[in-house]
Amino acid sequence: MKKTLIHLSRLTFAGALLLGGAQASFAQTVVNGTSFEVLELAGVGRLAANLRDEHGETFGSISGLVADSSTWTRTGNSYTGIFYASPDRGYNVAGTIDYTARINRIAVDFTPAAAGSTGLGQNQIGLALTQSTLLYETLAGGGTRPFSGIDPIPGGVATGGARPATSVLPELPQGYNGKLSLDAEGIVILADGSRLISDEYGPSIYRFSAAGEFIGALPVAPSVRPIRNGVTDYSSNNAAEGQTGPTPANPTAGRANNQGFEGLSLSPDGQTLFVALQSAARQDLANAATRDNTRLFTYDVSDLDQITLTGEYAVQLPKFQQGTGTRVAAQSEILAVSDTQIFILPRDSNGFEVGTQESLLRRVDIIDISDATNILNESYEGQIAPLGVLNPAITPALYTPFLDINDNAELARFGLVNGVQPGLDNLSEKWEGLVLLPTLEEGRPNDYFLFVANDNDFATTDGFQVGTPYNDGKDIDTMFLAYRVTITPAVPEPESWALMLAGLFAVGGVARRRLRSGK
């Protein structure tokens, strides 16, 4: 049979080959005129827990994930492409370490399982770590300094725990060693090839060149900046060895510890950036069971030299019962499918060797902000949910459940399970990556593969970071799941041509912005 190669940037799917077999739907929902349908789990892939990158350090797994859509191609029934992943702050069971922030490049080779097949292995998604780009800033006097995963010093600017704002940069969190602190989560690729990375500490949104050089940071709404003792204090109460933690342990307002900008995504047309707080700001809750009123922000990125904060919306996260208590499933990633609709990944804190080991809620859901209240610059922006109750003047984003990752019938087809069952592999706790790519099939322009990936928290019995070996006591592989879904009308095609052109002008663009920032 003749093989046909199809590139994502084409406007037609003519000439593609159909994957064998009709597929039956098992979940469908309609949100403001858009139909979302889950067909089935189509593939699984793994990277070993003890994998090391080109710098000799334990691979950082998936805290954020994005595809370079210009590389997504199909040959016969197989696909190849390049994904980029942002790991978080390094192995930190006994406090944070001076782990250099980086972006990992992963080559993907995917052959979906035949529709409806069972007794499958976990090898449909081939994964290879091909590059690890360290993130750094260029110093005014010459030389460079890396970004670090280390917890910022308590006290903010006055103690050296933050760098003061400048005319071109917002205030940014800083460690005791003078390095900018970055607990990386979401990642996107802009039209000029630069990368944005969202951060838990600030919370912040940093911008880097494709080579890893710091070139800027976006403005952030004051409503989510952490406040202690009347000042912005970016410590997350995860002090490095020999350092002291903050008092009080949690901020009194702004993002809670380790609950910063967990989700980041770019709209398919490349014009709108979305970023979401993992759970409610401290002023918007009474206790852990009321942290469901989180915030989603929008930025206009149509002019990359003048990125502007344009919106702030309330998103009510799902709740669930665990034992006798009510809990909130904090979000771990977002993925925009239009300029108003976004996939969101809420989950509990259970999984392989963690918590109850059986997850009670782990999903990909849909939020829609078409009719939601834009609270940016409103009088109640500072506090939207006193004691955890949303202000009645605010209409939150429409929230709709969609894809149940814990569906054991689907997982079992690949030897997986949610919970503990002999002979099957239990899913790990943290799932934090989402990517949507088309199937490129003739006559099926609305079909996509939704990739979901986990964060293994650097858990391995054979680890090495910052010059020191470690043993976490367990091995958790990095894992990818690929679901086949249908979205009608089709998701607007990303401007992948812009990524292909990035190399032609990225160097000039970086130089121009460096001049603007006084570097």
Q: How is this fold's topology laid out?
A:
Blueprint: E1 5-7, E2 27-31, E3 34-47, E4 64-75, E5 78-86, E6 102-110, E7 125-134, E8 136-138, E9 144-146, E10 162-163, E11 172-173, E12 184-189, E13 195-199, E14 204-208, E15 214-217, E16 227-228, E17 231-232, E18 261-266, E19 272-277, E20 293-300, E21 308-316, E22 319-322, E23 325-328, E24 331-336, E25 341-346, E26 363-368, E27 398-404, H1 408-412, E28 416-417, E29 425-426, E30 430-438, E31 447-455, E32 463-465, E33 468-470, E34 478-488, H2 496-516
Descriptors:
519 residues, five-stranded antiparallel β-sheet, 2 helices, 38% strand, disordered N terminus, disordered C terminus
Description of the molecule:
- The chain has one domain.
- Helix content is about 5%, strand content about 40%.
- The protein has two helices and 34 strands.
- It has a five-stranded antiparallel beta sheet. Strands 2-3-34-31-30 form a five-stranded antiparallel beta sheet, with no helix packed on it. It has a four-stranded antiparallel beta sheet with strand order 12-13-14-15, with helices on one face.
